[in-house]
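Researcher: Here's the sequence for the chain we discussed earlier.
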Amino acid sequence: MYGKIVLILCGLCVLTANIHCKYQPNWESLDSRPLPAWYDEAKFGIFIHWGVFSVPSFHTEWFWHEWHYNKTEFVNFMKKNYPPGFTYADFAPMFTAEFYNPDSWAKVLENSGAKYVVLVTKHHEGFTNWPSKASWNWNAMDVGPHRDLVGDLATAVRKHAPNVHFGVYHSMMDWFNPLYLQDKANNFTTQEFVKNKCMPELYELINNYKPDVLWSDGDWETTYKYWNATEFIAWLYNESPVKDTIAINDRWGNDARCKHGGFLNCNDKYNPGVLQKRKWENCMSIDRGSWGYRRDANLEDYYNTSSLVAILAETVSTGGNLLMNIGPTHDGRILPIFQQRLKDMGEWLKVNGEAIYKTRPWSHQNDTITPAVWYTSKPDQGGTINVYAIVLNWPKTNTLILGAPLSTSSTKVSLLGYAGYFSYVPLSQGIRIDIPSIPFNQMPCQWAWVFKIKYLKN
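Model: Thanks. This is the structure I predict for it:
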């Protein structure tokens, strides 16, 4: 009987004074592991897509895939710009990164207000941005930059961006790796690719760089069992050097995505718009058309700052984190338009971060009367719940009517970044906030204004 009790407790990963439990390599056990608190509190991160695809920088980071399968515009692009016989591997020496300054990147990240960064260490093309022993002559040390791009950024972030957690993206698949193609031809009944490339890479990344986020991808063609996902995650949670801090996503097989793992990001640009039962992440790109840098982008292809702030407000209000992507150039530059957007986000968060970081969803996500208003909440040191109304459009008159908050005689209303309290009038359903005339040069920010409301009934 005692043995059965121990087994049950260990399956749930319960620790007692007499029992040392480990997570078991099954989803029931692995999904019982709490998500590290830092991840939920962070709310905002930066994604960085960088690789050999940054060299052709045409249309998409899926360039090799589209060219390989003879998509017309990609075939014509190559015929027009490159000699006959040119292969995708010939792009690798052009991935030079001569302007790559990881210290500068780290400062851009710190100033953006982001609390974590996820660097693409290997995309579906298979090229590793670190000197992987499992990727001979198809890595950033052997060809191209001749340096450890991942290690350099990890070091810089930890030195110059102390408020930013370092994370890595890793694609489990390689589109055209012969071992992967053979496993695929065998209906994934063999695992030569997993044993010889995918898993060795993952262990290298964790042991060498000790990331706080492991963002898995490239899983969708087969199941988690082919990838040995549960065995790896059990090691990650039980024995790895980041077992207590690591946050992982859900992309571990086509039968695990949006079901298992740590936080859920389901599909690219996943943004359900309503409160979710589990922690989730909205990964999206400032360039609507591509994750990697592309030379054929136009100004209108980039989200403006107002739209990005709105996406952040919607995402956080409904319980998610926002992972906002940029794509550096082949020579290691972050384009000024990306720098500007990140700087803008940082400036907005300096004023309004109180309504984002460490917040929780409130009883309402949207207002019941006024459109384009998103709510978050957070207890103060005394335990009082502060409610934050993130108003995307400044009122055309000097009044703001909110239907969701129910006031009391003690209610106080203020505007983040502006001194003093505002008067208000209780309504049968909601409140009317009277806004004083604020000079333009005293407006706390340019996009989305946050009204902080204390001592509500609800």
